[in-house]
Amino acid sequence: MDYTIAMAEQPYNMSFTAGGLLYHESLTVAALYDSLGAWDAVHARVIQDNLLKMRTHSAAQRIYREVASRLKNLTESQKALLLTGSHQEQGHMLWLAVCKRYRFIHDFATDVVREKFLRLDLALSYDDYDTFFANKAEWRPEVANVAESTRKKQRAVVFKMLREAGLLTSDHRVVPALLTRAELKAIATDDPAHLTVFPISPTELQEWLS
Prior knowledge:
The protein is mainly α. The chain has twelve helices and no strands. It has helices at 3-8, 23-36, 39-48, 57-71, 76-84, 87-101, 103-118, 126-137, 141-144, 148-164, 181-190, 202-209. The longest helix is centred in the C-terminal third of the chain and has 17 residues, at 148-164. The radius of gyration is 17 Å and the shape is globular. It starts with a helix and ends with a helix.
């Protein structure tokens, strides 16, 4: 089944309140997976040696589960680029992992962030997020049931992720994604539709893929 269709048939997972892109934690877990090749072994080592530098066992478990759930959505070539690419490429791969993990964020990226970019409206506001959220809440009970305090935390997390991925400035201006050839190959080979989670134009996309 087509990835986009399969995603559309599933309820939104609204549990994205754990800290941003988790850059350092993700690289630690990805490197360990590259070495051990088995998620069970990675989990055991991370918790046993407190590789994520958490203060409590429960926090280590929670952050590991979050990081692993994102990284498992990346293909082998995408994980390889996460480990060996530039800081910009790493940020892009982590944003891709988030969007593949959370369809709500995926849809916000494609339906709001990229669409504003295409209209040359680069100012992304909290109101844009709130409008998107309200529209989804009208027909998605899992969205409507999110508490107000949680909604605000999620909104802050999404904007933080965009900034950490290099796709949004500190004053909330959308930054065009300049994808490298390595990124384009790693993403397009998986599914070209995933490229739409980045603020890029159809013309640029066509030129890059040609």
